[in-house]
Amino acid sequence: xxxxxxRKKPYKKPNNISIPSPxxxxxxxKVSVFVSLVMIFGVIFLLGISSNILSGVxxxxxxxxxxxxxxxxxxxxxxxxxxxxxxxxxxxxxxxLYGRSSVRRxxxxxxxxxxxxxxxxxxxxxxxxxxxxxxxxxxxxxxxGFIYDPNNLSKVLQIGKFTHGMEDGWGLATNGKVLFGSxxxxxxxxxxxxxxxxxxxxxxxxxxxxxxNLNELEFVNDEIWANVWQxxxxxxxxLKDGAVLGWILLPNLRKGxxxxxxxxxxxxxxxAWDDIDNxxxxxxxxxxxxxxxxxxxxxxxxxxxxxxxxxxxxxx
Length: 316
Ligand SMILES: *[C@@H]1O[C@H](CO)[C@@H](O)[C@H](O)[C@H]1NC(C)=O
Ligand SMILES: *[C@@H]1O[C@H](CO)[C@@H](O)[C@H](O)[C@H]1NC(C)=O
Fold this sequence. Notes:
The chain contains five helices and 22 strands. The protein is of the alpha+beta class. It folds into two domains: 59 residues, no CATH class; 249 residues, Neuraminidase, CATH 2.120.10. The strands form five sheets. Strands 16-17-18-19-1-22-21-20 form an eight-stranded mixed sheet. Strands 2-3-4-5 form a four-stranded antiparallel sheet, with no helix packed on it. The chain has a four-stranded antiparallel sheet with strand order 6-7-8-9, with no helix packed on it. The protein is globular. The structure holds 2-acetamido-2-deoxy-beta-D-glucopyranose (NAG) (2 copies). The site of one 2-acetamido-2-deoxy-beta-D-glucopyranose has 4 residues, from loops.
């Protein structure tokens, strides 16, 4: 590319250069001015191209495949709804299903449930997050949530129960300042951690489509990452405008488990981020394994509509 503007120029100008002596100095000047201009425009042109490329890359959502770094055991009877890494090899997990809902502390490496608080049978556990030494949990089809002491998982006295401002309780996450919540719609909420009132709301969109069924959430490097229910996709969501910045495609994890004979498993659900060692963990409902994964950008071109088909289920 760099040679193009320069090469074009000498081809055009031989006539001027061969003009006899009186005007020679003048036309030599002309030529050198022209050469300079061409070079300047060439540089501007190249800068233009590269800035187009850069802004193009920044605005087109990226696609990522995953590489499994480690596999850890996971309780295959845990209908995972909320997952977080609390440091020191410890995960906290919230599970669903009526009669089987719980909050638990789990050892990462062994998958051993070290502490478990069973929920009342009338509640179906959903998203979980850790904020200021407390665990916050929401529940399905209600606006009721619970606050637990992370050491013994007992409900915190007096303030152990709350009512939140979302339509339903699906996912929870935090950046240490506000809580982020999902309710199965395309809305990503910001909640006041003291009152649980909605203080902000963004509609999550990809290519003009609303992304419904936002489920388990994780705050990762100033983005919210969300499992999209009933897909093998995780959306990387911008907190500026709710735009999907990228899709993490994980069908190989679920398909690998099924191929290994784990036919009873449910969907991918549960993202945990270790912000000390930059480790990413994922699992699913009734999955016998929890994976540590790394992302790799996908270079392959997908035809129009393919990502929508994979990652954006119709509104439920
Ligand atoms: C980390 O885990 C170990 C083993 O479970 C425990 O003995 C230790 O107290 C924990 N440290 C912190 C800071 O929680
Ligand atoms: C749980 O631990 C807290 C302190 O972290 C304590 O106040 C509370 O009484 C404990 N609950 C139970 C049931 O042991």
